């Protein structure tokens, strides 16, 4: 638990009158209540460095797009390839595992996608967009593994998700989320693989603080699972989604309750369960009196939400108490 979390907990205890002013003063000698100047500078340096990388990559992309009719394609390739080569040289010449190297690898990963888009637009290869994203994800995989950076892994996850979404959209005439139950189920299962990778593989690959990536992976898993299961309470064609949802969310809840104690993921799972249960109750009340059904559903949503919040609050206090 870092110093800022300790300070936050001490201040909460003081607000709850569990600590006196003298006890708080004594504790502040070991755990400063305000972040030191060095922490502010380190965080600002991190934000500015990676923000600069993202903005420079976006600037190159928009420069090429704005001046597309006025530039020879050799000039476009020279700019994109030159920027990619420069980021590669910086990554090679910088100190291994340093912020500069990670930022340079992130720039190389972004510019790889820009170069692929430039090639596709120039030569009109006829490839689907999902193939562009899939190729982008495949090409930057070595860079991502080398970087051990959460920013690079975040970009990689986003590109993979875009590739999956665009691939599913090619399999239907409609928006993929409204098209087919198997598509939603396949997306959820693919996202389950991403969650397992973020949970178990990232620490072994050198990514120390993987909690943010795990939570993002959990979100993109729970969203299609909940959507498919909610419709499955009404539509028989979506029942496989519901049948997968029930045991999978039960396993996830047990894991993040007993093993990881991640309150945010448990909150996602709790309100996902409330959503599916509300949909199931609504399907049971389909032929009931409208006034009775609406009021019962409202009471159920309010009551279950309050119960979930109380449980999560107690769980959060337990987690904080164990880590202090």
From TrEMBL:
Residues 12-151 form the DUF2157 domain. Pfam families: DUF2157. This is Predicted membrane protein. Keywords: Membrane, Transmembrane, Transmembrane helix. InterPro entries: DUF2157 (IPR018677). The chain crosses the membrane at residues 46-65, 71-92, 104-123, 129-146, 153-169, 175-201, 213-232, 238-257, 264-285, 291-312. The keyword Plastid does not apply. It comes from Rheinheimera pacifica. The keyword Transmembrane helix applies.
């Amino acid at each position: 638990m870092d110093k800022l979390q300790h300070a936050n907990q001490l201040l909460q205890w003081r607000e709850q009158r569990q600590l006196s002013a003298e006890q708080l003063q004594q504790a502040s000698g070991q755990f400063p209540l305000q972040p030191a100047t060095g922490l502010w500078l380190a965080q600002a340096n991190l934000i500015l460095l990676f923000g600069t990388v993202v903005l420079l990559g976006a600037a190159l992309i928009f420069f090429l797009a704005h001046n597309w009719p006025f530039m020879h394609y050799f000039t476009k390739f020279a700019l994109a390839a030159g920027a990619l080569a420069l980021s590669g040289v910086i990554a090679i010449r910088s100190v291994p595992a340093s912020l500069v190297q990670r930022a340079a690898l992130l720039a190389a990963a972004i510019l790889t996608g820009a170069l692929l888009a430039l090639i596709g637009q120039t030569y009109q290869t006829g490839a689907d967009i999902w193939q562009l994203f899939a190729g982008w994800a495949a090409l930057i995989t070595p860079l991502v593994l080398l970087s051990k950076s959460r920013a690079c892994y975040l970009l990689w996850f986003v590109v993979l998700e875009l590739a999956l979404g665009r691939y599913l959209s090619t399999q239907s005439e409609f928006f993929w989320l409204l098209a087919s139950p198997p598509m939603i189920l396949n997306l959820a299962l693919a996202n389950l693989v991403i969650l397992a990778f973020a949970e178990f593989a990232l620490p072994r690959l050198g990514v120390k603080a993987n909690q943010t990536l795990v939570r993002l992976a959990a979100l993109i898993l729970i969203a299609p699972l909940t959507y498919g299961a909610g419709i499955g309470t009404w539509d028989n064609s979506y029942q496989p989604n519901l049948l997968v949802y029930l045991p999978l969310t039960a396993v996830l809840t047990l894991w993040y309750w007993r093993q990881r104690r991640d309150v945010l993921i448990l909150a996602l799972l709790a309100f996902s369960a409330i959503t599916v249960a509300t949909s199931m109750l609504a399907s049971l009340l389909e032929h009931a009196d409208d006034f009775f059904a609406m009021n019962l559903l409202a009471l159920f949503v309010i009551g279950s939400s309050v119960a979930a919040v109380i449980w999560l609050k107690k769980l959060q206090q337990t987690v904080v108490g164990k880590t202090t």
